[in-house]
Amino acid sequence: VVxxxxxxxxxxxxxxxxxxxxxxxxxxxxxxxxxLFKVLIPLHKPRGIASYHAQLAYCIVQFVEKDPALTEPTxxxxxKLWPKTNSAKEVMLLGEIEEILDIIEPAQFKKIxxxxxxMLAKAVSSPQFQVAExxxxxxxxxxxxxLIEEHxxxxxxxxxxxxxxxxxxxWNQTIVALVYNVMKTFMEMNxxxxxxxxxxxxxxxxxxxRKEAHREEAWKKVQKRAIEAANGNSNxx
Length: 237
Fold this sequence. Notes:
The chain has eleven helices and no strands. It is an all-alpha fold.
């Protein structure tokens, strides 16, 4: 159903596969589930995924819509294959994740909150402008925003450190503006929690700065002793 041999055939076959998946009876047969986990999800590995990704994502979404119980293992499978050095591929996968979240059932969303938003915190912190921007666009999706608001007490502590650092240090003003908008929505969702996180993070930052200052001071003392010892040895000689 899905071929990666050439740009043309992969797109046509994956689209055809989406139509087949749409016709699967529920509950899904075991072989259909195996097709998802043994064929479709591993197809996210090749570097040439751009030639067929839109159709592949369509197939994945069709499976999740057919059987919501597949949502958690599907998303966890995609997160395990998350690219570390390919920003274009990361942007594609972020788009696919948003497509899945756009149709996710609230009960399934609860199951993937922690790993999903840990990934998003890393993505918004990416030095690659396109990756950070694409991750921050999740907050423009009304349905995803409603899910975030419902679980903001879990999500805000995961996202806050990354957002706070970006708001202070990021080189790109577009990203900073998007981050301010996200922080504003968090503040409106739960102002008390937002204030608590701000104070806690600032206190932690001060603590880290003091530790760094102590390390620097200790290192200077070691260097001084080494110089004195070297001078003493040369005088003896």
